[in-house]
Write a structure and sequence with these properties.
- The complex is a heterodimer.
- Chain A is α+β, with helices and mostly antiparallel strands.
- Chain A has four domains: 2-144, no CATH class; 156-280, Pleckstrin-homology domain (PH domain)/Phosphotyrosine-binding domain (PTB) (PH-domain like), CATH 2.30.29; 308-455, ABC transporter transmembrane region fold (Up-down Bundle); 667-885, Rossmann fold (3-Layer(aba) Sandwich), CATH 3.40.50.
- Chain A is built from 27 helices and 19 strands.
- In chain A, the strands form five sheets. Chain A has a six-stranded mixed β-sheet with strand order 13-16-17-10-18-19, with helices on both faces.
- By secondary structure, chain B is of the alpha+beta class.
- Helix content of chain B is 20%, strand content 40%.
- Chain B is built from four helices and eleven strands, in the order ααβββββαββββββα.
- Classes of the chains: A alpha+beta, B alpha+beta.
- Chain A binds chain B through residues 1-2, 73-74, 76-77, 180, 182-186, 226-229, 233, 238-242, 245, 247-249, 251, 289-290, 292-293, 300-301, 490, 494, 497, and chain B through 46-50, 61-62, 70, 83, 107, 110-116, 127-130, 132, 134, 139-145, 150, 165-170, 189, 191.
């Protein structure tokens, strides 16, 4: 990074040198423009050369920054600077171009128009600008890192050193600098390659040592990751040789280097695709800021907060009346607040208690008025609170159900790409934040502004000099709020973190209490607890010290304003240039003044975090499901269950297929066992048949109709899934069984449970079918859960059944019961089963064997055993596994 | 049942982190822990820069060293593995070896566990969930970027901290008490 900074002076010097030339042209343009003389070709030529030089220079400059940042230390920061620099350089060039082009046009036409008039208006200039900006954008993308340069600019000394050795720098195909020396110090080592050789150039006591390796002496090139750094190792036979070491910061760059070197070794051409580094796009292409969340490429800096704000406001009409009421209440209460000091100060002292006042002696009347205003203020705040409460409930309800609804609508891929925790936060905390925006932030913002202006207006109109005086401590207060409060918050958040660490320890040791007791390690637990408790104690002390210093200090500083009023105002009262009432009024308003100021200092943070929350919510609301119902979807209320898969290819990422060219025809009622190693694509096939994803090419059809053409509702009602991980919802057993048909009869539930061999264990539970799962330690065993899932599927009564068989070990009796239940379930349905159990494999009509996403075998158990292929080997391994366990398969 | 045995050896580590060999000796019939005796081994560096091992009359042209306890006992219990990953044996203590072998082994460990030590923190700037650090390490000036707050600065014990940047580089602060006031303040803001 420091190196990047060092480069900076050079381009500036260069620009400086260009300056006189630039001025000459501008002056010439100016004179000619003023005189209305059309520009001559020569001047335009000079101008375009100048622009050319400018562009070249900026590109050269960028090149230097790139090469520096590659050898330099922090690639992220360097790329940030470089991207910004590129942006500036290109914008400067574009502006210059617009300027010149406009000028030449107008002068050519012989018109004495001012330059800024109709600036950039004509098409020609505009398209030129667009072009330039495009170039700029491309430069930024390159800098953002979609492709890497494999020829980094060599330092002069190295070129000289190469020359001394008789190596022509022109034949070098590849050059890259690392940031470590071979003995693990920070420093530069260069890796160069021609078509025949690899050179390693390293610095040794101010000299460059060049070593060379012939490609013919290399059998393998591979990167080896270590901890915190990595190296490229080449090898021939048994011998390994370390080529270059680099820190993890350069790991991406060198992984591409390995690809390139491998191609050079094989004598192949290096094409652009090899240099593509998709993961590299970690910076926002506009401003270079790193994306806070790499899965979600949204730049917090370039986020268009205003358009989000407009969209947030579009929620407002729904609550228009409430918001207006809230605003009115707030304004009314702040008017009351503003009235207070005026009544109790100016009116009471100057007009009532002072001789010759307007209402002299009418104490009772004025106190009554004050009382009345306070009463009114009370009523208003009660009204405000009530309206607010109603609205809070409404907003939260609407937002949460919208977000949750949007989530449910989305395809599975949305969920697999994101963490559950992330989505929980979206539903809960972001909607809370938006709600706060609606019924606190937004109205408060307006009211505070009104208050601030109101108070300032009143104060200034009463005595501008005194007002200026009381504003003196304001900058200090703002400074403290901006600078010292954040430190306080950081201490508080540390306190919070340590507190949760302590809680998690308590939780941990209570949950593991059996282990603790069994090992007799109570003392250790107590010691661990004390250690964390100590930490918490320390930070709590610190927080206490700091907050008990800062808060009084702030109120003291705010009080200083009052002191100034007392001093200056008191002096003025004695000199009778000010009434006593005015003084009291001033002091009253002082107390109201700093609250809004403090609020305003937070407004920026609050605003941006609010808009971020809104943005995340909109992201969910806007997400389009990948799997959508075709507009011409047909309704198929009953199916035969014939499934045909034709030339199907699919990958979760389009470039990486998981399944290739799958073909399968399944007759109605047939049972297909899907067999293969884990990762072979079995679950993916199931996901596709259930249309949780759509195929990339080829098709899946049921009864001759493409699944994409069948209405989603009918499709889902005809396909049932029994998953390996049985998910039971919070609710009673009956509700769980009847999940697919909530309105079915109780008889149906019992019958389904009986078929699934679940009835007996359910009846043994004290609460029978009404047993609520998950409550009061009510937990079912794996075998029981599976049977519930089977019952659920039986009640669902699908024509096509998908079984993801559990591998969970259950006792023999349970196993038999599950097996029996499954056999009953499967009868008469087209079934796809991911088979692990040998018994299922035997029962299946045909077995579909997958290997690395391809169908390698298809046939009955016996046929495949005879074929002695993949399936045979799988069975052999399984049998051996069982022998070790002592269970003969 | 190999897995069970592994767990047992883990529990046998007492509070000082030393292995009590006596407890697990009886398990020798199930698992074989090969200890490399200094007398029978010779480590040397090949011309290619990798470490080779001659063990009695067998030669391994390329071995890798893995620390079993990289944080607590960096120079003890080092697993020596073939290029393919197969364990050849364990070095109990580097100090048992003569100076030359120790030098080579230490150098290799330093390279493999590349962890510059932070001597002084010049600045830490936080923005949008990343913090940008500028530090002086024992191997020179360095800038790096750390993602998040609490997760990337890992306390090893009361005074030692490990910092992982977003590329996976590691930096160490061996004793927070030895840092100057400013550095300490920066660090405290991040933990």
């Amino acid at each position: 990074m420091s190196r990047v900074k060092e480069v900076f002076p050079y381009p500036f010097l260069g620009l400086l040198a260009m300056l006189p030339l630039f001025f000459i042209v501008v002056i010439k343009f100016g004179i000619m423009g003023y005189a209305g003389i059309p520009l001559d070709a020569g001047t335009i030529l000079i101008a375009s050369i100048l622009i050319g030089v400018g562009v070249d220079y900026s590109i050269h400059f960028l090149g230097r920054v790139i090469s520096e940042m590659k050898t330099g230390c922090n690639i992220h920061e360097a790329s940030l600077i470089a991207t910004r620099a590129a942006g500036y350089a290109i914008i400067i060039n574009a502006v210059t171009l617009i300027f010149l082009n406009n000028y030449s046009r107008y002068t050519r036409m012989g018109e004495k128009k001012k330059i800024n008039k109709d600036f950039c208006a004509d098409d020609e200039t505009f398209s030129l600008c667009v072009l330039l900006f495009k170039v700029g954008k491309k430069a930024m993308v390159i800098l953002g890192g979609s492709t890497l340069s494999i020829k980094e600019d060599l330092p002069k000394q190295i070129i000289e050193a190469l020359g001394d050795k008789g190596i022509d720098p022109q034949v070098i195909e590849f050059s890259m600098a690392s940031d470590l020396t071979l003995n693990g110090e920070f420093g530069e080592t260069w890796l160069l390659a021609t078509k025949e050789k690899i050179y390693i150039v390293r610095e040794e006591s101010d000299n460059f040592v060049i070593e060379e390796v012939l490609f013919t002496d290399i059998e393998r090139i591979r990167p080896e990751n270590m901890i915190g750094s990595a190296m490229i190792v080449i090898g021939k036979g048994e011998d390994d040789r370390i080529l270059v070491c680099y820190t993890s910061a350069l790991a991406r760059k060198f992984s591409i280097a390995v690809k390139v070197l491998e191609k050079l070794r094989k004598g192949e051409e290096v094409n652009e695709e090899d240099l593509l580094d998709k993961d590299f796009e970690r910076n926002c292409p506009k401003c270079g800021t790193l994306y806070p969340n790499l899965n979600r490429k949204v730049c917090p800096k370039c986020l268009d907060r205003r358009s989000i704000f407009r969209r947030v406001l579009s929620f407002v009409p729904r609550y228009r009346s409430q918001i207006i009421l809230i605003l009115l209440c707030m304004l009314a209460s702040s008017a009351m607040k503003l009235l207070g000091p005026f009544l109790s100060g100016r009116i009471l002292f100057d007009e009532v208690l002072t001789e010759g006042g307007k209402y002299e002696g009418q104490v009772g009347k004025i106190v009554l008025i004050i009382f009345g205003s306070q009463l009114l203020s009370l009523l208003i705040s009660i009204a405000y609170g009530r309206i607010n409460a109603v609205m809070t409930a409404h907003v939260i309800f609407d937002l949460k159900s919208q977000v949750f609804g949007a989530m449910q609508r989305l395809s599975l891929s949305f969920f697999t790409n994101k963490e559950t925790g992330w989505m929980m936060t979206r539903v809960n905390s972001d909607s809370n934040q938006l709600q706060r925006f609606f019924n606190n932030g937004f109205p408060y913002f307006i009211v505070n502004i009104v208050n601030l202006i109101g108070i300032a207006f009143i104060l200034f109109s009463m005595d501008w000099f005194l007002t200026l005086l009381i504003l003196l401590p304001a900058p200090l207060v703002i400074y403290i709020v901006r600078k010292i409060y954040p430190r306080l918050w950081s201490i508080f958040s540390r306190q919070f973190r340590r507190n949760s660490a302590l809680n998690s320890l308590i939780n941990d040791s209570l949950a593991g209490v059996r282990v603790v007791k069994a090992f007799g390690k109570e003392d250790i637990e107590v010691a661990r607890f004390e250690k964390r408790n100590d930490d918490l104690f320390d930070i709590s002390m610190e927080a206490g010290h700091m907050s008990s210093t800062i808060f009084p200090l702030v109120s003291f500083l705010m009080g200083l304003g009052a002191l100034i009023i007392w001093a200056v105002g008191g002096w003025q009262v004695i000199n009778e240039t000010m009434t006593f009432g005015t003084l009291i009024t001033f002091v009253g308003y002082m107390g109201l003044f700093y609250g809004p100021i403090e609020f305003m200092t937070h407004i920026v943070d609050w605003w941006s975090s609010c808009m971020n929350a809104a943005q995340r919510i909109f992201e969910i609301l806007d997400s389009e499901p990948d799997v959508i119902e075709a507009p011409d979807a047909v309704s198929m209320s009953s199916l035969n269950g014939e499934v045909e898969i034709k030339d199907m290819t699919f990958g979760y990422e389009k470039t990486k297929p998981v399944l290739y060219d799958i073909n399968l025809h399944v007759k109605p009622g047939e049972m297909i066992g899907l067999v293969g190693h884990s990762g072979a694509g079995k679950s993916t096939m199931i996901n596709l048949i259930a249309r949780l994803y759509d195929v990339d090419s080829g098709s899946i059809s049921i009864d001759g109709v493409d699944v994409r053409k069948i209405s989603m509702k009918d499709l889902r009602s005809q396909i049932g899934i029994v998953l390996q991980e049985t998910y039971l919802f919070n609710g009673s057993i009956a509700e769980n069984i009847a999940y697919a048909r909530p309105d079915c009869k109780r008889d149906d539930i019992i019958r389904a449970a009986k078929v699934a061999n679940a009835h007996d264990f359910i009846m043994k539970l004290p609460d029978g079918y009404d047993t609520v799962i998950g409550r009061r330690g009510m937990n079912l065993s794996g075998g029981e859960r599976q049977r519930l899932a089977i019952a659920r599927a039986i009640l669902h009564d699908p024509k096509i059944l998908i079984l993801d068989e559990a591998t969970a070990s259950v006792d023999t009796e349970t196993e038999r019961q599950i097996q029996e239940a499954l056999e009953r379930l499967v009868k008469g349905r087209t079934t796809f089963a991911i088979a692990h159990r040998l018994s299922t494999l035997r029962n299946a009509d045909r077995l579909f064997v997958l290997e690395k996403g391809k169908n390698v075998e298809l046939g009955t158990h016996e046929e495949l055993l005879k074929a002695k292929g993949t399936y045979f080997n799988l069975i052999k391994i399984q049998r051996e596994g069982m022998k070790i366990k002592g269970i003969e398969g | 049942m190999e897995i069970g045995e592994d767990k047992k050896t883990q529990i046998d580590i007492d509070e000082q982190g030393e292995l009590e060999e006596a407890v697990t000796e009886g398990l020798a019939e199930y698992v074989d822990v090969v200890y490399l005796e200094p007398a029978k081994t010779s480590f040397y560096r090949t011309p290619g820069g990798v470490i080779a091992l001659k063990l009695e009359d067998k030669t391994y042209p390329r071995v890798n060293l893995h620390r079993a306890f990289p944080f607590s006992l960096g120079d003890k219990y080092i697993s020596v593995r073939e290029g393919s990953g197969q364990e050849i044996g364990i070095i109990t203590d580097l100090d048992d070896f003569d100076e030359k072998a120790r030098g080579i082994l230490k150098e290799e460990l330093e390279r493999r566990y590349f962890t510059p030590e932070i001597l002084c923190i010049n600045s830490v700037k936080s923005e949008f969930g990343y913090s940008y650090w500028e530090v002086e390490t024992d191997r020179g000036h360095r800038r790096f970027t750390v993602k998040g707050r609490g997760d990337s600065v890992i306390p090893i014990d009361e005074v030692r901290y490990l910092i992982m940047d977003m590329d996976g580089n590691r930096f160490e602060i061996s004793d927070i008490r030895k840092l100057d006031r400013k550095s300490k303040k920066y660090l405290e803001g991040m933990i």
